[in-house]
Amino acid sequence: MRLVVAITGASGALYGLRFLEACQRLGIETELIISKNSERVLELELEKTAADLHRLATRHYSPDDLEAPPSSGSHPIDGMVVIPCSMKTLGEIANGISHDLITRAADVTLKQNRRLVLVPRETPLSQIHLENMAKLRRAGAIILPAAPAFYIKPEKITDLVDFIVGRVLEMFGIDHDLYPRWAGVGD
Ligand SMILES: Cc1cc2nc3c(=O)[nH]c(=O)nc-3n(C[C@H](O)[C@H](O)[C@H](O)COP(=O)(O)O)c2cc1C
């Protein structure tokens, strides 16, 4: 299994970090692209640099490198995740604006009919955001909002984050033990 992973400048950089760590543990190859704008969020929220996250990926590319392999449909990948996904990047993908490697790779993922999972974090949502999401869903993308469940009885922030990371992995049929599965309320 090989995934393109993009981290963009929405709040929730920890989702991207924990996703990369989970992939590393599970032996999933990752090709990481970190947007320029997300570097500030990484610094503010995690006190980390792009280089720190690059170390968790199998390969990494600059978002400016439109000649990198994920730009082509001939590059063999199983799918792509944008985690977290800003409304700006989501809007660009929804409208086919492939101006950098992240938006180009997402465009290619859709045209190749591969799985594209977007993890937006914004609230409240404007009509423009909602229309872009609906358009993407019609095009085959999965919109998986960073909206963790509380029935897992989280004790730490990472419990909440890992719930979303687990949900993303499930979209690719990847088994994991990141959170306890709901098994009913019992007796
Ligand atoms: C601290 C910080 C938090 C942000 N949080 C969000 C957010 O939660 N959702 C969002 O859509 N944009 C958020 N933004 C705005 C994006 O970073 C901005 O729209 C940027 O242009 C996104 O570019 P990118 O998608 O290329 O990374 C935030 C910006 C900063 C500086």
Q: Which structural category do the helix and sheet elements fall into? A: alpha/beta
The CATH class assignment is Alpha Beta
Q: Estimate what percentage of residues fall within beta strands.
A: 15-25%
Give the names of the bound compounds.
Answer: flavin mononucleotide
Q: Tell me, what's the shape?
A: globular
Question: Helical residue percent?
Answer: 40-55%
Q: How many strand elements?
A: 6
Q: What is the count of distinct domains?
A: 1
Which regions are unreliable across 5 or more consecutive residues at pLDDT < 50?
none
CATH topology: Rossmann fold
Report on this model:
By secondary structure, the chain is of the alpha/beta class. It has a single domain, classed as Rossmann fold, CATH 3.40.50. 41% of the residues lie in helices and 16% in strands. It has seven helices and six strands. A six-stranded parallel sheet has the order 3-2-1-4-5-6, sandwiched between helices. Strand 1, helix 1 and strand 2 form a beta-alpha-beta unit. The radius of gyration is 16 Å and the shape is globular. The mean pLDDT is 97. The site of flavin mononucleotide has 16 residues, from helix 2 and helix 4. Flavin mononucleotide binds next to helix 2 and helix 4.
